[in-house]
Amino acid sequence: MSVRPSTLRVVALGRKNFLFVGDVESGKHLATLYSLVASCEQAGVNPHAYLADVLMRVQTHPQSRIEELLPDRWDAARCA
Predict the structure, then answer these.
(1) Dist CA 32 CA 26 (whole Å)
(2) Residue with more model confidence, 4 or 66
(3) Three-state SS string across the chain, please?
(4) Are 39 and 31 in contact (CB under 8 A)?
(5) Across the chain, what does the average pLDDT equal?
(6) 8 Å CB contact between 50 and 74
(7) Which of 6, 24, 35, 60 has the highest count of CB atoms within 10 angstroms of its CB?
(8) What is the pLDDT of residues 48-59, one digit of tens each?
(9) pLDDT tens by residue, 14-32
């Protein structure tokens, strides 16, 4: 699996920013957000549209079908 140069750039830019996260819990939350955005980009999904839709739907979405909200399975047409 090859790594795109833009992915490496995000890591390099973030490295300095990660010093100012504040505490361990905030760092974990930031890492989760970075992971979601990277997963969206890898799946060819607009991260902003994905997060806007999923954060609204996750409250009422059935837990038994939570895998439908993963970036690689998310369908932008269904949220329109």
Answers:
(1) 10
(2) 66
(3) CCCCHHHHHHHHHHHHHHHHCCCHHHHHHHHHHHHHHHHHHHHCCCHHHHHHHHHHHCCCCCHHHHHHHCCCCCCHHHHC
(4) no
(5) 82
(6) yes
(7) 35
(8) 999 999 999 989
(9) 777 777 788 888 888 888 8
CA-based nearest residue to 73, from 32, 44, 35, 37: 44
Backbone torsions φ then ψ of 32, nearest 5 degrees = -65, -45
The type of residue at 38 is A
Look up tokens 């973030």; give the residue: 14
Among residues 77, 68, 25, 67, which one has the least CA distance to residue 46?
77
Computed from CA positions of residues 6, 8, 12, 17, in that sequence, does the dihedral angle turn out positive or negative?
positive
- State pTM to two decimals: 0.71
- The residue extents of the domains of the chain are 5-79
Task: At 26, list the tokens.
Answer: 């905030």
